[in-house]
Design goal:
heterodimer; A: alpha/beta; D-Maltodextrin-Binding Protein, domain 2; eleven-stranded mixed sheet; 15 helices; B: mainly alpha; MetI-like fold; 12 helices; globular
Chain lengths: 343, 283
């Protein structure tokens, strides 16, 4: 049927008449597959939504490569968008078909990795941070600089996660470097060596982070924004800080496979996914930060995603993670192991 | 041995050998095989044979540092287990009778019945600043002291000694109980005082039990990873946690397997070096 109709004729038809079934490829339980959200989308546009899931970025890429035409919307972390684009797996977004894009933070829309080859290949959807949180009992006023980690007053009450990449990038921020292009590894090593005596223990999971914070063992520790929002809502006396040195960010975008035959419906779905109406409801169920400034502004005033992350000035300080080569990862791991073994 | 006896012996031994094959030999061979690969042969990964995992371990001083650290940890934990375990075994074997002995036995074995993780987390509650120990000491002492042993080397040793003490107590108890009471009476009637009896009579006779207990403690402690990680904080990186990381975090099974085999070899060398003493003690 579609081959006979021109796009103009399609646009003129009533929603029910061009009802498509779009297939979305995403992590399970990550926003796009919320029942109420799909029901609302189907009611508004007539399109139905079917989901398929991946459990790793590599699996997502493999599925796109081996099943052309099977998917219409795919979630791609910005670190992987350039690779998907280079392999010809995804197609540029038509901003005219995504009206809500106008409200998306321009800094995120301009993200280097979402614009490989100069065109927008992924609509910024959600993002989050690795920064740090402090115990409000020790800090009536939240600090503004990473230097608190090296403050002798908190010796033995500092923690970072036991992860080589995160530790090295954290030290890169503290030494004023670009986390994706660390030129002075000696400075990073020196900074981490200096940090070690301050550390009580390395945290591994949200649960032990919360326990140590609740017991007063930690005064200041690196943390993820989503986890911090959960800890705060559970009543833990902590405050999440995005310091002046910046923070490590991740950014998820929604892309359209080049092989999709239902591009209009796919664009409509992406538009709904960044719609403030959708986000405000999703946020109440525990969502990461939104890319849409209007959506953040529509949140309740005390909401974490509005109060802490809703400010475009915060986004401006974030350094979004780019792909890390295996050799780099191994070099970081060797450094991290050496530092830990030296204790 | 007649034919019938041999068949019966075979039938009785078969379960044990089957168990050894399935539970020890097969997994160990699989790990030995993995330690010589470039990649874990799961799914569609490309792999080939290599000894790079072993050269990596010998070429990088980090591994030697951690191995030395773990051996030292094993030594100290064994030392404290012996120092604390011997008097306890003596009291159990020679001084208590009847109901009170049963109660003490129960207390000794109790750690075995609780989950290892539960044990460690209870130690965490006791050892941390403003924890049970800190408050108890401050309630008794008139001046303020700040006791925060959590996330330190002593915390690791305390946790491990608590976990492994029962081995030493039980093995020593057995050899102490076997000492003939008349031997001690003879020594006393010949004028020997207690320190001398202990040193010349009791200790040598209890040695097999002490050594068996020491071996039972030393070997697992050198490879321990959970207690150091949870109680040791930033000091908690040991050879055991290094192996755990390779399997759990980095998914580098070949290197993890190679590290395990080097540990096995080192432990065997230590036991072989100690074997003259072991043999002497057994006689």
């Amino acid at each position: 049927m579609k081959t006979i109709l021109t796009p103009a004729a399609l646009a003129l038809m009533t929603p029910m008449a061009l009802a498509d079934e779009i297939r979305v490829l995403n992590w399970q339980g990550y926003g796009t597959d919320l029942d109420w959200a799909i029901a609302a989308f189907t009611e508004a546009t007539g399109h139905t939504v079917v989901h398929e899931y991946f459990t790793s970025e590599q699996e997502m890429l493999t599925k796109l490569r081996t099943n052309p035409g099977a998917y219409d919307v795919v979630l791609i972390n910005s670190a992987f968008t350039p690779q998907a684009q280079a392999e010809g797996l995804i197609t540029p977004i038509d901003p005219m078909k995504v009206p809500n894009l106008a409200d998306v933070d321009p800094a995120l829309v301009a993200n280097q990795d979402l614009n490989p080859g100069g065109a927008l290949y992924g609509v910024p959807w959600t993002w989050g941070l690795t920064s740090f949180a402090v115990n409000t009992g020790d800090f009536p006023e939240a600090p503004t600089s990473l230097s608190v980690f090296w403050d002798p007053a908190f010796k033995g009450r500092v923690s970072i996660r036991d992860d080589a990449l995160e530790a090295v990038q954290f030290a890169a921020l503290a030494t004023g470097q670009n986390i994706n292009d660390i030129t002075d590894m000696d400075a990073v090593k020196a900074k981490l060596t200096e940090l070690m005596p301050q550390i009580a223990t390395f945290w591994g999971a949200e649960t032990d982070w919360n326990q140590n914070m609740a017991a007063g063992q930690f005064a200041v520790a690196t943390y993820w924004s989503g986890s911090a929002a959960r800890s705060i809502s559970e009543g833990l006396p902590v405050a999440f800080v995005v310091p002046e040195e910046g923070a490590i960010g991740w950014l998820d975008g929604l892309s359209i496979p080049a092989s999709s035959t239902k591009q209009d419906a796919a664009h409509a779905f992406i538009d709904w996914m960044i719609d403030p109406d959708f986000y405000v409801k999703w946020e109440a169920e525990g969502a990461p930060a939104t890319s849409n400034t209007a959506a953040a502004a529509a949140l309740p005033e005390e909401s974490f995603n509005r109060k802490v992350l809703g400010d475009p000035a915060v986004v401006a300080r974030v350094q979004f993670m780019r792909p890390v080569a295996d050799e780099t990862r191994e070099a970081y791991l060797a450094l991290w192991q050496e530092l830990k073994a030296g204790q | 041995m007649t034919r019938a006896e041999r068949i019966r012996a075979l039938g009785l031994l078969a379960p044990a050998y089957l168990w050894l094959t399935v539970a020890v030999f097969l997994p160990l061979s699989a790990m030995a095989f993995f330690s010589l690969l470039t990649e874990v042969p799961f799914g569609e990964r490309e792999w080939s044979f290599t000894i790079a995992n072993y050269t990596e371990v010998f070429g990088n001083p980090v591994y030697a540092t951690l191995l030395w650290k773990s051996l030292k940890l094993g030594f100290w934990v064994t030392f404290w287990c012996l120092v604390l375990g011997f008097p306890c075994a003596w009291i159990l074997a020679r001084m208590l009778k009847g109901r009170s002995r049963e109660v003490l036995f129960l207390l000794v074995i109790l750690p075995f019945w609780s989950n290892a993780l539960v044990r460690i987390f209870s130690w965490a509650i006791v050892l941390r600043g403003n924890g049970v120990l800190d408050r108890a000491v401050n309630a008794v002492l008139p001046w303020d002291v700040n006791i925060n042993l959590m996330f330190s080397e002593p915390a690791i040793i305390i946790g491990l000694v608590h976990s492994y003490l029962p081995y030493v107590i039980l093995t020593t108890y057995l050899s102490l109980q076997a000492i003939d009471e008349t031997l001690i009476e003879a020594a006393r009637s010949l004028g020997a005082r207690w320190p001398r009896i202990l040193w010349r009579l009791v200790l040598p006779l209890a040695l097999p039990g002490l050594i068996a207990g020491a071996v039972l403690v030393f070997v697992p402690v050198v490879g321990s990873f959970m207690e150091p990680r949870l109680l040791g904080g930033r000091f908690g990186t040991t050879y055991g946690t290094l192996i755990e990381d390779q399997f759990v975090a980095v998914f580098n099974w070949p290197l993890g397997a190679a590290l395990s085999f080097i540990l096995l070899a080192v432990v065997l060398v230590i036991l072989a070096a100690a074997s003259p003493a072991l043999r002497k003690a057994a006689t």
